[in-house]
Write a structure and sequence with these properties.
It is a single chain. By secondary structure, this protein is α/β, with parallel strands linked by helices. It has 3 domains: 8-169 and 226-257, ANL, N-terminal domain (Rossmann fold); 266-451, Rossmann fold (3-Layer(aba) Sandwich), CATH 3.40.50.12780; 456-586, ANL, C-terminal domain (GMP Synthetase, Chain A, domain 3, 2-Layer Sandwich), CATH 3.30.300.30. The chain is built from 21 helices and 24 strands. A 9-stranded mixed β-sheet has the order 2-1-10-9-11-12-13-14-15, with helices on both faces. A 4-stranded parallel β-sheet has the order 4-3-5-6, with helices on both faces. It has a 4-stranded antiparallel β-sheet with strand order 16-17-18-19. Helix 2 (36-52) packs across helix 3 and helix 4 packs across helix 5 (115-124). The radius of gyration is 25 Å and the shape is globular. It starts with 7 loop residues before the first helix and ends with a helix.
């Protein structure tokens, strides 16, 4: 069948890949399966129930969940096929942002996952005139439950109305408004049509490798990146339309446990997760002691020297049998690929995972591009690049190095904001990504930095902070780092140490220290050791880029405290404000 709207993906799945485990969510220790047929039937019930509730095409409904789950997917289907617009929202944003987003989009109803979110929205509701009601997925005392909508739509006598509305929906109709998490300022409502998302799924599908001889009924993906983010949402549609069962992970904390239970072929990741997986592997390998640790460290040397596309050496084959095989088993043993997005992935780590038989395909995109602009693929990989642009996306590099794009997956504008929409496009209709990069002779795209994040020192030298930060995060002592110095005489950096690693180092070197992040950050010996790490990084930088001073922050940077975006990017303005005293200390005469 010809897929034109996002809800057509479920019909395609039913026609070509009917499964008993189309969607799977873990509850009370059990993986609960929803078949493709049941998924569609529940979506129809939601559609009929919403129509009885008085919802009309063009209305807006909010979706907020603390973790990915089957109910979210059912709601997305039921809402979209009657011409209603979904507004997926991050669970971790402030009450103030909820009020702004809900009022800006005039949300009529909202569906949330749990008691905590219900309380948060209930507190905000008096300031949101359009919000008529809040429903929960979990059973929450005193809260209307989403089952009430399913019950409203139980009778299929009105299904003809649902079908008529679905047929009337055009590919260019608005499907969703996704508010960008943003590192500064108020969130912007990115308007995405059915065609924006469908065209991106269609163009991205050939980049995902298929394992020969594998029955589609056996293929699984583990979904844990926030499904309210367009990356995971587009991938959800891609999985659905390719017969890949979607298992929703319980949480990022239980990802290690879930991956061993599910044994997936596919997962999407962000670089921070890859770094944490590697740290776990490294710590386990070096803690073994004796000959085992020596073999482990020897294998790392093999992995670091691996060249993609070239035959593996005899020594590499030995390392694979002794060490890398265990890496793969630790990730379920069935992985075909990990797809990485959101931020730059370390070239060293990417190479090592490829060497270990765990290929990571790094890609690039934005919410405004639905999201994929480019992605590596099997047979066409360059470590350090974000791959070749999709076949239906045109990419140009402006004179100042900014990447601009055009194609069917590019949004048409920000909701109710003509000024920002106009600013977002060039005179010839290309979307300004805000990223700096270049295309090489083979058309591989390389990202250098965020245009908005580059700054100039008082000496007139431009600094690209992400390049330096990515180098620094290769150090085991450094969990997070933010390079600063806009308008100052020199670059400096705020560093959040890996407190556990720093504590272990201190104990090995007889440095007396407690578990307190505050005490670890204030310890002169720890700071001195991390300064040595910075000196190593400076060797790879131009003189004007070298970090001259650092200060260690006495707390972990998290999403909940507003220092990281939900996709784990730095909120630079918030971090600077939080540690203003440390910033001032670095720039005192």
């Amino acid at each position: 069948m010809n897929v034109k709207r996002i809800f057509d993906f479920s019909a395609l799945a039913m026609e070509k890949f009917p499964k008993e485990d189309c969607l799977v969510t873990k509850k009370n220790g059990n993986w609960n399966k929803t078949s493709t047929l049941e998924f569609i039937n529940q979506g129809n019930k939601i559609s009929r129930g919403l129509l009885k509730l008085g919802i009309k095409p063009g209305d807006k409904i909010g979706l907020i969940t603390s973790n990915n789950r089957t109910e979210w997917a059912v709601m997305d289907l039921g809402i979209s096929q009657i011409g209603v617009v979904t507004v997926p929202v991050y669970p971790t944003i402030s009450e103030e942002d909820y009020v702004y987003i809900f009022n800006n989009s005039e949300i009529k109803y909202c569906f949330v996952s749990d008691a905590e979110l219900y309380k948060k929205l209930t507190n905000a509701k008096p300031n949101i005139p359009s919000l008529a009601g809040i429903f929960t997925f979990d059973d929450v005392d005193g809260a209307p439950n989403w089952n009430e909508i399913l019950d409203l739509g139980e009778n299929d006598a009105t299904q003809i109305e649902v079908d008529d509305l679905a047929r009337a929906i055009n590919p260019e109709d608005l499907a969703t408004i996704i508010y960008t998490s943003g590192t500064t300022g108020k969130p912007k409502g990115v308007q995405l049509t059915h065609n924006n998302l469908v065209s991106n799924v269609t163009a991205s599908t050939p980049r995902i490798p298929k394992e020969k001889g594998l029955d589609y009924k056996e293929v699984k993906a583990l979904s844990f990146l926030p499904i309210c983010h367009v990356f995971e949402r587009m991938i959800f549609y891609l999985y659905l339309s390719n017969g890949i069962s979607i298992y929703f992970a319980e949480s990022i904390e239980k990802i290690g446990e879930n991956v061993k239970e599910v044994k997936p072929q596919y997962m999407t990741v962000v670089p921070r997760l890859v770094e944490k997986v590697y740290d776990s592997i490294y710590n386990k390998g070096t803690a073994a002691g004796g000959l085992k640790s020596k073999i482990f460290l020897w294998s790392l040397g093999i992995a670091e020297k691996y060249e993609l596309g070239k035959p593996k050496s005899f020594m590499h084959t030995i390392a694979d049998k002794l060490v890398f095989k265990k890496w793969r088993e630790g990730l379920g043993g069935n992985l075909v690929t990990l797809v990485s997005g959101s931020a730059a992935l370390s070239k060293r780590l990417n190479t090592m995972f490829h060497a270990a038989g765990i290929p990571i395909l790094e890609g690039y995109g934005l919410t405004e591009t639905s999201p994929v602009i480019s992605v590596n693929s099997f047979g066409k990989v360059k470590v350090g690049s974000v791959g070749i642009p999709l076949e239906n996306v045109k990419v140009k590099i402006e004179s100042d190095g900014e990447i601009v794009v055009k194609g069917p997956s590019v949004f048409e504008g920000y909701y109710r904001d003509e000024e920002k929409t106009k600013e977002a496009f060039t005179d010839d209709g290309y979307f300004r990504t805000g990223d700096i990069g270049h295309l090489d002779e083979d058309n591989f795209l390389f990202i250098t930095d965020r245009k908005k994040e580059m700054f100039k020192t008082s000496g007139g030298k431009f600094i690209a902070p992400q390049v330096i930060e990515n180098l620094a995060k290769a150090s085991k002592f450094i969990e997070q780092i933010m390079v600063v110095g806009d308008g100052e005489k020199m670059p400096c950096a705020l560093v959040q140490p890996d407190f556990a690693y720093a504590k272990n180092w201190a104990e090995l070197h007889n440095v007396k220290i407690s578990d307190s992040p505050k005490e670890i950050a204030a310890n002169p010996a720890v700071k001195s050791r991390i300064e040595k790490e910075i000196e190593k990084i400076n060797e790879h930088l131009g003189k004007w880029e070298q970090i001259k001073k650092i200060e260690l922050t006495p707390k972990i940077w998290t999403i909940d405290d507003g220092l990281l975006t939900p996709t784990l990017k730095l909120k630079r303005k918030a971090i600077k404000a939080e540690f203003q005293d440390l910033y001032d200390r670095m720039y005192k005469e």
